[in-house]
Structures are given as C-alpha cells and as structure tokens.
C-alpha cells in the first residue's frame, strides 16, 4: 500500500476514530480469547501473525525492511522487550483477573506515566509542580478503579496491579526507544519489534508451563485472534503510522482516552457488562491528570482543531 493509497483515505477524524475503535475493541477481544487459550501463548500468537503482516508491508512499501547497524538493532530491541514483550505479557495475564473494560481504563494512564518516566530519566523536560499534580491525579485514578477493601488482596487488585505494571513497561519502552531512534522506517521497526516480542512471549509461555494443547480453538477464539492480529494489530498500526505523520504524537495520544469508552461499549454489547460508577470515576480522574499534565499541548491541539473547522466552514 503506497502513500497515495493512504492519502486517498477519508479524513483524519475518521481515521482517528477508527484507530480508537480497533484498539478499544482489542481489550474485549483479549478477554474473549483468554477463555479458550493460555494467556501468554495467546499474546505470542497475536504478534506472530501481526509481525509477519507488518513485515510484509515494510518489505513492499519501504526502502529499508531490516536493521543493519548496532543502533538500528537497539531501536528494535527496546520496543521488542518492553512494548511487545513485557507489556502484553502483563496485560494478558492481568485480564485473567479483570475485565477488558477495566484494563482499558488502567492502560489510559500510559501517556501520564510516559511523561513521568521521561522526566525521571532526564529524557524529557523536568516536571513542574503542576505536572507532578497531573501524574499524582493519574495514579489516584487507578487507585479509584481498584477501590480496595481494607486488608483485602482480591483478584481485581492483582489484575489491576499486573495491567498497571504492563502499562509502566509500555511507558518505559516508549521513552527508552527515543535515544536509539536510528531513522528506520516505522513499519520496519514495529514489524521486527513485534517478531522479537512474540519470541519472548513464547519463551515466557513455556516457562509458565502453558501449552497450546490446552487451547480450545472455538470460532470465538479464532475470530478473537484474527481480529487482534490483523485488525487491531497490523491494520491499526499502519493507521497509527499515518496519523502520526498527519497530526503528530501529542494529538494522537488522545486516542488513549477514547479506547476505554469503546471497550466499555463493546463489553456491554458482547457480555452485557456495565462499567460501574467507580471505574468511570477513576477514568475521569486519570483524564483530568493527563489534561493538567499536558494542558499547554492540549491548548495547541484545540487551537488546531478550531482552525480546521474554520477552514472547512
């Protein structure tokens, strides 16, 4: 698929919403698949398939389909370990304890954690007092989602803790990847990172004692895996690359706050689950934390949106 193809697609707003739908629905698809396939094996299979598809795209659509230098290999290794290895491992195991909708809310903390980790590692500007308030609000939002009972350590707390740890790994990987950016085309980097992450997930699955012989390949399981690998994996990442060029990283970050809404609606449609008021409140607190932390960037984004609307009208 060429750049001409992507430019012929509908406007940016539709692509943005499509990405939110694909990634938001993925949390529920994971929940469906985990009823039939061991957690880490399921994650590994997803990135086996997605990695191959994105790699095929990189071979046909870019001029550099594989890394060659040490720096280029490092630019692949970091996301392979943290973004496509540790993050899905903890997310998938976490979703054996909590619903996909709850997991999506916790993962929406990712932009806040990314800013905090980047500042702590001196890879971004130090956080101001207001920025620290934003990070604290984000963490408070997760605590609201957990809603722990005194002295209790139930499955929901374990699940949220695992998803939160995975989200922290995602944030760390996103930050650490920046110094190793070797200029490889993004599809190339993501494809090899997916493949590397899948290998790590297979090894972790074996170490955990999982076996694909224990999987029950029902229609639901096959559809869930196909959706995760192709729709929310390969296709969604290609849409992500295009949006990154069109609107930039800050505006694209906002997709994280549509994903829990999509996940909640899909969970209601598939399972009849309704997100409780505590989880909804936690999501609002996390978003407020993000808004405080990124208030200047959000102001610029809103100004850009207003200019677009003015031009169209």
SSE arrangement:
Layout lengths: L2 H5 L4 H22 L5 H23 L8 H25 L5 H8 L2 H11 L8 H18 L8 H22 L9 H22 L11 H35 L5 H13 L5 H17 L1 H18 L1
Helix pairs in contact: 2-5, 2-10, 2-11, 3-4, 3-9, 3-10, 4-8, 4-9, 5-8, 5-11, 6-7, 6-8, 7-12
TL;DR?
This protein has 313 residues and is an all-alpha fold. The chain has 13 helices and no strands.
Give structural notes.
By secondary structure, the chain is mainly α. It has one domain. It is built from 13 helices and no strands. The protein has helices spanning 3-7, 12-33, 39-61, 70-94, 100-107, 110-120, 129-146, 155-176, 186-207, 219-253, 259-271, 277-293, 295-312. It holds the Pfam family EamA. It comes from Halorubellus litoreus. The chain crosses the membrane at residues 39-59, 71-90, 96-115, 127-145, 157-177, 189-209, 221-240, 252-271, 277-293.
Descriptors for this entry?
transmembrane helix, EamA_dom, 13 helices, AA-Vitamin_Transporters, mainly alpha, transmembrane, 76% helix, 313 residues, globular
Strand content bin: under 5%
Give the mean pLDDT. 87
Q: Count structural domains.
A: 1
SSE string: HHHHHHHHHHHHH
Low-confidence stretches: none
Helix content: over 70%
Shape: globular
Number of helices: 13
| Number of DSSP-assigned strands | 0
């Amino acid at each position: 698929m060429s750049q001409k193809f992507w430019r012929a697609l509908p406007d940016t707003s539709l692509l943005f919403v499509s990405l939110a739908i694909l990634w938001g629905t993925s949390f529920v698809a994971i929940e469906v698949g985990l009823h039939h396939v061991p957690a880490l094996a399921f994650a590994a299979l997803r990135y086996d398939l997605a990695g191959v598809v994105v790699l095929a795209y990189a071979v046909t659509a870019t001029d550099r389909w594989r890394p060659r230098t040490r720096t280029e290999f490092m630019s692949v290794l970091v996301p392979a370990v943290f973004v496509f290895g540790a993050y899905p491992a903890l997310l998938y195991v976490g979703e054996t304890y909590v619903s996909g909708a709850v997991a999506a809310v916790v993962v929406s903390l990712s932009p806040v954690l990314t800013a905090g980790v980047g500042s702590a590692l001196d890879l971004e500007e130090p956080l101001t007092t207001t920025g620290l308030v934003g990070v604290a609000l984000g963490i408070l939002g997760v605590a609201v989602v957990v809603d722990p009972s005194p002295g209790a350590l139930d499955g929901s707390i374990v699940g949220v803790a695992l998803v939160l740890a995975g989200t922290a790994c995602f944030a760390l990987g996103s930050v650490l990847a920046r110094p190793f950016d070797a200029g490889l085309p993004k599809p190339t980097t993501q494809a090899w990172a997916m493949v590397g992450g899948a290998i790590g997930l297979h090894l972790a699955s074996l170490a955990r004692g999982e076996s694909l012989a224990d999987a029950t390949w029902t229609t639901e399981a096959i559809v869930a895996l196909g959706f995760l690998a192709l729709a929310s994996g390969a296709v969604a990442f290609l849409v992500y690359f295009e949006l990154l060029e069109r609107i930039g990283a800050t505006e694209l970050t906002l997709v994280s706050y549509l994903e829990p809404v999509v996940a909640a609606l899909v969970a209601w449609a598939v399972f009849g689950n309704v997100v409780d008021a505590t989880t909804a409140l936690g999501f609002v607190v996390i978003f407020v934390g993000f808004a405080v932390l990124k208030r200047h960037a959000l102001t610029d984004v809103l100004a850009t949106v207003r200019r677009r609307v003015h031009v169209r009208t």
